Amino acid sequence: MQYLLMLYSDESGWSNMKPSDQEQAMGAYHAYTEALNKAGALVGSNRLRPISSATTVRVANGKTQVLNGPYPDSKEQLGGYYLIDVPDLDAAISWAARCPGASHGIVEVRPVWPTRT
Amino acid sequence: MSSGISDAQARNTADAVARRSYGKLVAFLAARTRDVAAAEDALSEAFASALTTWPLTGCPTSPEAWLLTVARRKMIDVVRRRRSGEIAAAQLQVLGEEFDVTVADVAKDVEVPDQRLALMFACAHPAIDAGIRAPLILQVVLGLDASMIASAFLMSPTTMGQRLVRAKDKIRQAGIPFRIPEREELPGRLAAVLDAIYAAFAEGWADPGGTDVARRDLPEESLFLGRLVTEMLPEEPEALGLLALMLHAEARRRARRNAQGEYVPLAEQDPALWDWQMIDIAEELLRRGSALGSIGRYQLEGALQSAHVYRRRTGRANWTAVVQLYDALWALSGSPVVAINRALAIAERDGASAALNAMPDVAADVRLTEYQPYWAARAELLAKTGAYDEARHAYEIAIGLERDPAVRRFLQRRQSTLPGLQSDTS
Hints:
The complex is a heterodimer of chains A (117) and B (426).
Chain A: E1 2-9, H1 11-15, H2 19-38, E2 42-47, E3 55-60, E4 63-68, E5 77-85, H3 89-98, H4 101-104, E6 106-111
Antiparallel strand pairs in A: 1-5, 1-6, 2-5, 3-4
Chain B: H1 7-30, H2 36-57, H3 63-82, H4 85-96, H5 99-107, H6 116-123, H7 130-142, H8 146-152, H9 157-174, H10 186-205, H11 213-216, H12 218-232, H13 237-251, H14 276-291, H15 297-314, H16 319-333, H17 336-350, H18 352-358, H19 372-384, H20 388-401, H21 405-416
């Protein structure tokens, strides 16, 4: 089954980190990605730019509204994701627990709806 | 060859199989697809066909294999009707794999692999809402219907039904596995299974007279589940502790009510009414558990039951040992319920004033304001220190919070024996 691990955290936590700590954190993410890859569980992963770069689009009554900023504006923001393919929820949870993001924010685990063909 | 049998015979055989193997069949049918609801639907249709087919053809040699074959065919029909393309192909493959071999085995009288424990671990998974785990296990492992479970858990049948459906959807959609967790995560996960079994048992106790049909069988069913866990995980001390705890409580069931149906507290029970065979089994389980060298909540609670039985049997006060057990339990759980019982034991050892000081503070835990045993314990301790007015007030609240009429009458009797108030209005 495929699961999307969504990494939420307080962005200011990152910008307030010392460069040496940031470097260490990047190293941890790199190692985690490598471990997922090695285990054959990684389908895709990306880090997202800060929410200041976000734009929200909605079409209502035929009109397109474009808003500056994220939806919704909360204390913790989606900062990146891993799409993984593992046998079951337990395996997904154990990967989520190893994710560095779980220690400085939260990781939401969501099964992916299988596509119909 | 087999000839027809009566409808009643067909029903008896089907009932016997349901009783013995319901959870086993559900676990087997759902293990690969993780679709518990579909497995239950298919199985209930299979039971329905059995009732119309067996009177004509006679009972099959292996009713379990017959039911599995029919149920699987129903599941395949459903998949074909609902889905198309690759997903259907994948699901049909899942339903086909291993299945034929096993059904053949069952027909040859080889046991169906017992995946009930794995099913229980799925039901008590941390991703499942804690409050629905016990009802879910009662339904999918034992086949109890939602309205009966609802009444045992004081919930409306509609709400219970919806919550059970949602929990089954969660198992399927989130991909919760049917497996016994690995050694390192087993203790935490097993605790959830044991807690669910104990919750079912405790709900059964809410009707100690056994007069409420819906609740009467819950202790028995919980004991069945407790035994199942100890058989499949014989080296888990907490599983042994839970079974011992439940057996100790069950052994004293008859003594908890007198001939008039009135509540009898432990200190006044007649040990001759206890089930001593059950107590012996409980004691043996506790010994086996303690030899495994890892203490836990259920073993401590079982040991406390054992200490109470010892005191009543020998007439020798063992309050110091009892207080020590409560100390250990308190350190482990920090539960205010434990603190109340610990205070009552301290009262026996050091007197009521010391016990009142050891009682948990309502200010620290507001849930205590609605907890009957807290007020009953407080009333008893206050009465012993001679603070009769305060005791009367505490009894008043305890009576107002109790839902069992027999216990309510017991508390009222206690309250009326307090000196210092002329309440005789006749």
